Amino acid sequence: MAPLLLVLLLVLLLAGAGLVMRVLWLVALALVAVLLIGFLFRTSGPRGTRGRRQPR
Q1: CA 12 to CA 52: how far, in whole Å?
Q2: How far apart are CA 18 and CA 25, in angstroms?
Q3: 34-42: long-range contacts (C-beta < 8 A, 24 or more apart)?
Q4: For FRET with 22, which of 30, 41, 44, 46 sits at 20 to 30 Å CA-CA?
């Protein structure tokens, strides 16, 4: 009985870890998409520059 419970617990843990990894992949893909959209559609600064630091 105990080995069966241990196997079921292991299966539950691995299934939960798989779900967590899938969610983390989706979050990472969403962040990359936001980063790319922000990079492509950034506004220009007062001198027409696109976000570069100007020497003082």
Answers
A1: 50
A2: 11
A3: none
A4: 41
* Distance between CA atoms of residues 52 and 35, nearest Å: 17
- DSSP summary character for residue 47: T
CA–CA distance, 32 with 24 (Å, rounded to integer): 12
Q: What three-state secondary structure class fits 16?
A: helix
Residues 6+ apart with CB under 8 A from 44: 50
Q: What share of the chain has pLDDT > 70, as a percent?
A: 75
* 51 within 8 A of 42, measured Cβ to Cβ: yes
Whether 22 contacts 30, CB under 8 Å: no
Residue 34 has pLDDT above 70, yes or no: yes
The dihedral sign for the CA sequence 7, 12, 13, 19: positive
